[in-house]
Structures are given as C-alpha cells and as structure tokens.
Amino acid sequence: MAEVQAIKDDDTIRLIGHLLSIRCNPQMADVWHIGLNLALRISDLLSIRFEDIHDDRLIIRESKTGKLANIPLNTKAREHIAKVRERHPNHVYLFQSYRCQQLKHRPPQPISRRAVSLAFQQVGQELNIALGTHSMRKTRGYFLYQSTKDLGRVMKMLRHSSEGVTLRYIGITQDEVDKDFVSLEL
What we know:
GO molecular function: DNA binding
Keywords: DNA integration, DNA recombination
Pfam families: Phage_integrase (PF00589)
Protein name: Tyrosine recombinase XerC
Domain Tyr recombinase: 2-182
CATH architecture: Orthogonal Bundle
Oligomer: single chain
C-alpha cells in the first residue's frame, strides 16, 4: 500500500470534494467532507451508524484501539450529516451501501473501505497526489498542528501515543521543523 499524504492547502481540499462528487458519486464526497472533520480511521468512519450520533456528538468505540471516541461535531460535520440523513432517512449507516439495498434479505451494510480507496485513488491520480483513505485524518492533523503548533493536541485528537508517529503521520518534516527554528527569533 502506497504512503498517502496530508493535503496541505484549502483549494485542493475543495477540489478533491468536487471531483469525488462528479467523478465518483456524492456519497464519496460526503465521506471526504465528514472524514476531514472527524479525523477517524476509515474503518471507524465507515462503521458510523446514525444511532451513534447524539445531538452534537459522535460516540463510537474505535475498532483498532478499543477506546471510546466521544467527538463533538463541528458545524460543517453536522451540516453534512444532516444532508445525508435528509437524503436517506431510512439508512442505518451514515455511509450505507446502495448495493445492499438491492439485495432483499440482507441487512444494511456500510460502503466498503475498498470502494472508498478506489474512488480516492482515482481522484488522486487525476490530481497527481498520493490520496488515500488516511488522507482525511492526516489532513485534519496537519491543519490542527499548523494552527496551534501544539503537537500534544494533535496527538490527543488522533489518539496517538508517540510524538514521532504523529509528526510522520501529518507530514511534518525535519526541514519544516528547522525552518521554524530559523524563522522564530525571540
């Protein structure tokens, strides 16, 4: 599996959402927009049920760590979730597979990680960037770090236990750290 990167500018973030909507389908754009705002691993993002959303919070148990994630929903996340709910009032999952709806006696299922990965790869190839399912989480972490320069906050949001992992994860290179040392004079 190829290493994917954080998307580091607003225009590209918007362009990715637009291309996912027109090249793939609006559901993939919803995954992108909501995923950017929740910073969850893709397996947890796709497993969200509408019953996991309580007023302005998402409460789920992370599959990788077993930890309870109690995430406040920002305005953009709430707006996107409300639009999905309005379009699909009978869905169980936030990102429910349409294919399972066509099979009569099968319980609802979320869309697959593979489907999301293929859609993201397609748009990434078009834009010549390494785009994948972790790009949303990495992008959220990168922007939080850029706005706060507080690695501890980023680690807590991503629920990481190592600073080194978090720095690599969000794409902060030694060159960028060196530049910060040079540019900040006290």
